[in-house]
């Protein structure tokens, strides 16, 4: 049986130790460093789809998702910066613009909506992008005609 190799790195100026192969997000969570996520579930394979867990690696111009990026010994990770805050906010605004997110009316909103929670944490009180859900076509089934939602008017075609 081989011993797991330990590595150390800095996240937001804090020295963190971890096992080789762990992701930046796993190390951050083990050290009580908050990095926002929407799509990350510990029991599933991470895929980085929501892009809220983005971090900067000192010396690199790129941003990377913390949930899928393996940590490298000696790196300095930045998880909170104005650049990251602006990128996360823009991502959330795009998610809110994509579909109907009238949270007070949502039948699934039992006070534990991750998207709504992240919106609050990132100070979103409106979005700067046009809403796309007014253009969405809804196909009910073969018995009903096509419904088109257009500027809050329902039109039967």
Structural class: alpha+beta
Relative helix content: 10-25%
Mean pLDDT equals 81
Radius of gyration: 20 Å
- pLDDT under 50 segments (min length 5)? 138-157
Termini separation (Å)? 68 Å
Oligomer: single chain
Task: Explain this structure.
The chain starts with 5 loop residues before the first strand and ends with a strand. Strand 6 (137-138) and strand 7 (147-150) form a beta hairpin. The protein has two domains: 6-80, Roll (Ubiquitin-like (UB roll)), CATH 3.10.20.740; 86-156, no CATH class. The protein is 20% helix and 20% strand. It is elongated. It has 157 residues and is an alpha+beta fold. A five-stranded mixed β-sheet has the order 2-1-5-3-4, with helices on one face. Residues 138-157 have low confidence and may be disordered. It has three helices and eight strands.
Write the layout of secondary structure elements.
Layout: E1 6-11, E2 14-19, H1 24-30, E3 54-57, E4 63-65, E5 76-78, H2 82-98, H3 114-121, E6 137-138, E7 147-150, E8 153-156
Parallel strand pairs: 1-5
Antiparallel strand pairs: 1-2, 3-4, 3-5, 6-7, 7-8
Summarize the structure.
The protein is an alpha+beta fold and 157 residues long.
Give the tags.
disordered C terminus, 20% strand, five-stranded mixed β-sheet, Ubiquitin-like (UB roll), 157 residues, elongated, three-stranded antiparallel β-sheet
């Amino acid at each position: 049986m081989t011993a797991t190799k330990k590595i150390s790195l800095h996240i937001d100026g804090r020295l963190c130790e971890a096992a080789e192969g762990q992701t930046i997000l796993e190390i951050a969570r083990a050290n009580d460093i908050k990095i926002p996520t929407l799509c990350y579930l510990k029991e599933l394979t991470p895929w980085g789809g929501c892009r809220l867990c983005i971090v900067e690696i000192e010396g690199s111009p790129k941003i990377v998702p913390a949930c899928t990026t393996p940590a490298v010994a000696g790196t300095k990770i930045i998880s909170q910066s104005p650049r990251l805050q602006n990128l996360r906010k823009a991502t959330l605004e795009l998610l809110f613009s994509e579909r109907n997110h009238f949270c007070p009316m949502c039948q699934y909103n039992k006070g534990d909506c991750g998207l709504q929670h992240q919106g609050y944490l990132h100070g979103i009180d409106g979005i700067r992008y046009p809403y796309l859900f007014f253009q969405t076509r809804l196909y009910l089934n073969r018995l009903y005609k096509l419904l088109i939602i257009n500027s809050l008017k329902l039109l039967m075609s």
